[in-house]
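User: Quick sanity check before I run a bigger batch. Here is a single chain. Can you write out its predicted 3D structure?
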Amino acid sequence: MNRAALRRAALTEWGPLAGTVRRALVRKKLRAIPMTLAAVLLTSVFQIVQNQSWGFDPVQRIGSVQAQLPWWPALLRTPLSLFVPALDLPVWGALAQVLLVFGIAEICLGKWRTLAISYVATLAGTMYARLAVHIGPDSVFGLPPEAAKVVDTGPSAAVVGLAIFVSWRYRAWFTCAAVVLAMAVEVVIKPNLAGKEHIAAVVAVLALCAADEVRRSRRGARAQEEVERGQRSGAPASRS
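Assistant: Done. Predicted structure follows.
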């Protein structure tokens, strides 16, 4: 494939998405992503606090989720768990993910939809962890009992979900497929809690994509019907 063909393919794949992001940043600059900047700041604060001798326990109590937790504490902690960096991963990775993926999603989807999709993806992983521990390690869908004690925090499931939803919405099919394939490869290579939770997030967000597609299709059909109805009512009467 020559350079011109690659450029055309890139424009087809990312042109509409890149155009939307570029226009928003040129027009509003950082004011286009206030929620994302707040999320980056919150993640940074949690990272600083949890690394203090006095701060680890408070952060865990408000933002740490484990499969062994009762349902209500887990549900209450899940929203903040997105912004508590995982203890075994470098914080710069979480900050980069939030800034890039949350920022693009906030511009393309709006802040409330971005937060909603992030929560659905993260909650899907949290629910799956409980089910997988219940199933047990003998099943390909299960996890060993010790997985119930793993501290499950960080934005990774939300990032995966947002990447899929945005690429689906902007018809970046190759990107959407690449994210799904990467998560499948991850869970094959390393079938741990994080990898399987990412698959749960993928399934949940693909279901959201399908529902959104049906909703948009029905709305488009209703709009077309209204246009046709208006054209018929405004048409001159036929002569006999």
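The mean pLDDT is 91.

User: Great, the batch can go ahead then.
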